[in-house]
Specification:
With 697 residues, this protein is of the alpha+beta class. Helices cover 38% and strands 20% of the residues. The longest helix is centred in the N-terminal third of the chain and has 24 residues. Bound molecules: 2-(butylsulfanyl)adenosine. The site of 2-(butylsulfanyl)adenosine has 15 residues, from β3, β8 and β13.
């Protein structure tokens, strides 16, 4: 049962005042908790529909007991407070949220309210736009004299986070708007939604999984997580997009209507959603809603409804807002795509790092155009919290249209034959104890390399594309070689070259494929060191960290010996390890723990008998070796990409954002907020000319 169903009284009007006050208190804390999960941690626990239901319950109780509306009422707050990791920006005009409509009656009411408010004659035509409600995160972009100077997240609606450096990395967002002088206001604030496409989301999660990192729940969380990165170069590596759909402060009006404003944005170089329509009454609005709902499964981005906005700006102005939502707009939501099915069983999957993940096996069912027969249950707490039993009828939902989720159990359908699921305290594959450390959600198998499931997953990771990348050695082949007992350790993968004839005699193989495979394995013996380090599959060591470690330690035994010495955290090896930029204590701990294990040490020594990874090329020694450099503005004699590559070649590290650690800011033409920030922090600012002189010196 969802929270709203659990908390909703039989009759709100029959409540005693004290009961209503208690309910409002509980709802305020519940909604605040979920707001934080959603906005602060990009990791929601409940579906949007369940969230909307608790918000609606809160609103209904407040409507019946207006005297009891709390100072911290969820209806007067939007979203979560800004995260302390970013600077804060107070919005020049608050970023509002939208009220929701669910059916035609709600739309009729919306239109009637507006006509009443404006005291319109019944014959006076009202115009609206109908545009998709993009399921991403909203952002406010401030342009001064055409130059992008600031970007802020919505935050709590009044104050958001400064994500300027990160937003600068998004290709859909122009750094400069080009308009003939007369039509370019001194201050132009453009608001819209940053999102990730469904295809890019799937590819990103694949990379996350390969790197042993937690996958994102849906494209919206992936977009939020990608934007809110302290290191803007991570944002740059994530494909984010932007649709412009609203304004903040504008010093001189550019259009009388919203539709005209959207056209203006489009002329300025922004991407505006092409499904937007002009409508004149409830019937036309609902027809647009239907069309967009039909298009929904075919769109490459998630939408969760259609937003209707009064077209005339002067009317928007007069209508104003109630609490934190405009009177002139409403979001007509889509029903979440849900289906009911039977949970046949719960299996435990053992991952590369030993994580035990419960997976629901379901009677196949179609949800939003896709047949679903499995759904992850995340961890044991989730199974308990949702009170899931084997044999239950469950409601399934495709969250953000991608990962199937079990929303809830249909408790009314139980007949007593359902079985409770006992989470194992032993690995189902190797039977070693599975331990869940205090404060962690995940139980892990302690079998390490002796666990066949972990071993297999590690081998798959070792040969994967971003690690050793051995042509012809995919997951299927690895499974086969493990089954034949030809591969028991990673070093055995290289010893396969002595089995060319055995391999050739396998089904669907043949001499030529076997020869190709042997050649590919031999070629991988010289793979760069960072690929080998990444391939070991150490917790938290993704590709970027592996590259840093390779640069620093230059050899695998160098890395291993240093990590073994660093077990003593007073040793210089420890301070050396945590001194590497971007390596913190938690990553250091995982490295130390990995190499402290003798079975891992033996595995590495065995591996080193088979491969000779060359040390990474050392950057040239130069005046900028080891310096942290930020580029901003437009460079004239070379591209930004080329300038960065040049700096890195000379041993500098290029960063996307200014901090006290920055050594130089290279400021091209029209450098904006970064130059100001650099000046405040006393960072040396170089012109493009100074920069050329410096690196040629
Ligand atoms: S207009 C004053 N238009 O929905 C109205 N919002 O639930 C401001 N959203 O915070 C919003 N697509 O993040 C508007 N076409 C669209 C939208 C849209 C998505 C988001 C936006 C807003 C939230 C409100």
């Amino acid at each position: 049962m969802n929270d709203a169903d659990r908390l909703r009284p039989d009759s709100i009007t029959a409540l005693e005042g004290t009961e209503a006050a208690l309910l409002l208190e509980e709802l305020a804390s519940l909604i605040s908790y979920h707001d934080n999960r959603y906005h602060g941690e990009d990791s929601p626990e409940i579906s949007d529909a369940d969230y909307d239901a608790v918000v609606a319950l809160n609103r209904d109780i407040e409507a019946a007991f207006p005297a009891l509306i709390r100072a911290d009422s969820p209806s007067v707050r939007v979203g979560a407070a800004p995260s302390p990791a970013f600077g804060k920006i107070t919005h020049s005009q608050p970023m509002l949220s939208l009220s929701n409509a669910f059916d035609k009656t709600d739309i009729d009411d919306f239109i009637a309210r507006i006509s009443r408010f404006l005291a319109l004659e019944s014959t006076e035509p009202l115009g609206f736009t109908a545009e998709p409600k993009i399921d991403g995160l909203s952002i406010s972009l401030r342009y001064e004299a055409g130059q992008l100077v600031q970007a802020a997240t919505r935050g709590d609606g009044s104050e958001g986070e400064d994500v300027t450096a990160n937003v600068m990395q998004i290709k859909d967002i122009p750094h400069r708007v080009t308009q003939s002088g007369a039509k370019l206001p001194d201050v132009l604030e453009v608001r819209g939604e940053i999102y990730m496409t469904k295809a890019d989301f799937a590819a990103l999660n694949e990379r996350q999984a390969e790197a042993g990192l937690k996958p994102f729940a849906n494209p919206r969380n992936a977009a939020a997580g990608s934007l809110r990165q302290k290191d803007a170069s991570i944002t740059a590596a994530r494909p984010l997009h932007f649709f412009a759909y609203a304004s903040g402060t504008i010093s001189t009006a550019v259009s009388d209507t919203h539709h005209g404003f959207l056209d203006y944005l489009s002329e300025c170089g922004f991407v505006v959603n092409t499904l937007t329509r002009l409508c004149h009454n409830a019937e036309e609005l609902v027809a647009s809603w239907r069309d967009i709902n039909t298009a929904r499964p075919h769109l490459d981005y998630d939408i969760d409804g259609v937003v209707y906005k009064v077209n005339r700006h002067d009317w928007q102005q007069r209508l104003g807002q109630v609490s934190r939502a405009p009177r002139w707009a409403i979001a007509h939501k889509f029903a979440a795509e849900q289906a009911e099915t039977t949970l046949l069983d719960i299996d435990i999957q053992v991952g590369r790092t030993g994580a035990l993940t419960p997976v629901a096996r379901l009677a196949p069912v179609l949800v939003g155009g896709v047949t679903v027969s499995n759904a992850t249950l995340h961890n044991e707490d989730e199974v308990r919290r949702k009170n899931i039993r084997i044999g239950d009828r469950v409601i399934l939902q495709r969250a953000g249209d991608v990962i199937p989720q079990i929303v809830r159990v249909v408790e009314a359908s139980r007949d007593g034959s359902e079985r409770e699921f006992l989470f194992p305290d032993k690995c189902p594959v190797c039977h070693h104890p599975a331990i869940r450390p205090d404060g962690e959600a995940i139980r892990r198998c302690t079998g390490g390399f002796t666990c066949e499931a972990q071993r297999l997953e590690r081998f798959k990771h070792f040969v994967s594309r971003n690690a050793m990348d051995i042509d012809g050695l995919g997951e299927r082949q690895i499974e086969l070689f493990v089954e034949k007992d030809w591969v028991r350790t990673v070093a055995d993968i290289f010893r396969l070259t002595a089995r060319e004839d055995d391999i050739a005699s396998l089904d669907r193989m043949g001499q030529k494929s076997a020869e190709n495979l042997v050649n590919a394995i031999n070629a991988a013996r010289k793979n760069e060191l960072s690929r080998v380090i990444f391939g070991l599959g150490i917790r938290q060591i993704g590709q970027a960290t592996a590259r840093l470690l390779a640069q620093h330690y230059l050899s695998l035994d160098g890395l291993m010996n240093a990590c073994r010495q660093a077990q003593d955290n007073t040793a210089s090896a420890y301070s050396d390890l945590v001194g590497i930029d971007q390596i913190g204590a938690s990553v250091a701990d995982d490295l130390i723990l990995f190499f402290a294990d003798d079975s891992h040490r033996n595995m590495v020594l065995d591996l080193l008998g088979e491969i000779q990874p060359p040390p990474p090329e050392q950057p040239e020694d130069s005046v900028i070796s080891g310096k942290i450099i930020v580029f901003t503005g437009t460079l004239t004699s070379l591209s930004r990409t080329e300038a960065k590559a040049q700096a890195e070649r000379l041993g500098a590290r290029v960063s996307g954002s200014i901090s006290a650690k920055t050594d130089y800011l290279v400021a091209g033409a029209d450098a904006g907020s970064k130059a100001r920030k650099a000046a405040e922090l006393g960072v040396t600012i170089l012109t493009e000319e100074n920069w050329r002189t410096l690196i040629n010196s």
